[in-house]
Model the fold of this input.
Amino acid sequence: MPLHEFELIDRFFSRLTGGDEAVSCGIGDDAAVLALSPDQELVVSTDTLVSGVHFFGDADPYDVGFKSLAVNLSDMAAMGAQPRWATLALSLPQADMAWLQGFSRGFGDVAERFGVCLIGGDLTRGPLSITGQILGTVPAGAAIRRSGAQPGDDIHVTGTLGLAALALSLLQSDRESAAIPPSSLERLLRPVPRVQAGLALRGTANAMIDLSDGLAGDLGHILVASGAGAVVELSRLPCGDGEGVVSEAEMLRLAVNGGDDYELCFTAPAAARDAITALAGAADCSMTLIGKVVAGSGITWLDEAGNAMSVDAESYQHF
Amino acid sequence: MPLHEFELIDRFFSRLTGGDEAVSCGIGDDAAVLALSPDQELVVSTDTLVSGVHFFGDADPYDVGFKSLAVNLSDMAAMGAQPRWATLALSLPQADMAWLQGFSRGFGDVAERFGVCLIGGDLTRGPLSITGQILGTVPAGAAIRRSGAQPGDDIHVTGTLGLAALALSLLQSDRESAAIPPSSLERLLRPVPRVQAGLALRGTANAMIDLSDGLAGDLGHILVASGAGAVVELSRLPCGDGEGVVSEAEMLRLAVNGGDDYELCFTAPAAARDAITALAGAADCSMTLIGKVVAGSGITWLDEAGNAMSVDAESYQHF
Done:
């Protein structure tokens, strides 16, 4: 009986999540928001990477360290938060010095790039697994939640979609494949979180999420939280360049359903288009208009002729 | 090449831990302390429990849930912090509803008892492992660190020592043993963090730590952090009641070296003895004077005749 992560949390942990007035935003968004002082809120998120599930057991430890912090920073980006501090809980089968050195270099390069300070940790013996927790700050009331999308809003995504999923699908069929475009492998192994773009979108985006499980699933989370639907024009999706390794149709399928892109998907009023163009330039990050929020529910995918078409809309399920 | 957790962290992660003036206290104490507002500091800690390492794989999920939050709360207690919010990263081999139900009941009972609100989580597929992160608050400057012990301070411990280690040693030799005193099993499986005692000791204790790895090792951490030594009178140790299952000498050895008690060890000026007696009563928790902080380094263990004796001073090593 596979159940989605959110259903499991709702089912078993909901009695633990309420009743604290300092919690501006609890479980169910990219991060929690705590009102700790009148002018500033604390943003808190946690993410786990497990060997054999989220990365190959023989993965380069540099890449594992890089990604383990990057995916947590992506949750900060999705809230429009400034990442500040991290804790690291690391389970390792044994104290492997070479592995730790590589891991700490990768983790550290991301921490330095984004100005994150490591404040705590727990090293335990066990199957290889990394749980990062990230703490960030936003001005009070400025966090960008999933629930703010309004019918009539434009829907935008940053960067390109589908390359990480392309690399993963090729690696899963052949670990030694020489056909994997280097740019797609880079996206899978060392995703760069859109922290600057997330900060720049404060005050402009009405709702935002990071694309970890795939556009279909993650945009779906915005729509459920906002009580709205969406129309997305498939021809507008900024698919990554598959370099001829797969068909355009397959690249489109990966852009819709593939996870691990760690781009941002956000909604904003149509009146903000010029502002978004300007801040995309400032954040050095493309932002592409892909559709509209509408009344109703669910996502309608339109082909070039404007006909609704079905896409395989299963995003990554945690169980 | 077994290395202790702290050495590993120092060796590989030290470049990531500095340079942020909001970090009042970083890696190396029971929790980190962040100065987020003029009057209040945030206290942050994380702890992982791994199946087969920190609990038996077939352990009652209620107990696993209970302990996974309790050990994190113990870190708050050791800082004199008020626990407020938790995140939970849970890796499970499959979505086992019965297990999740038991786990969430245990976790929830501790959360409710101590007023902790669950604000975030990550459920992933993987080997059974739980990483809790706890956030608490203290008035600015009130956190009780490991580094504040002064020569001349008394050394106290809360509660009793050694029972959790007794239960563990008996379980390790015979999982079905009927000889395990129920009180010791309770201490191993469902340790009650000394949150009230920790709060009560603000302004009185100069240094504090929780006893997770054993008195010898954990008091040793206080001494290293404080640049001091200690003399401990073994006859004063509040050994738990082994109920005749083991000798008194073995019970003493467990009290010195056994982990998992989750009691507090703290130092305070001798002038505070009456105050400590009073607050022990208020916190409904015994506090026992066991020795003195002295100039120098290391722990001198005295027998009843006042002669220094050697104890096997190896606390739990994470690798």
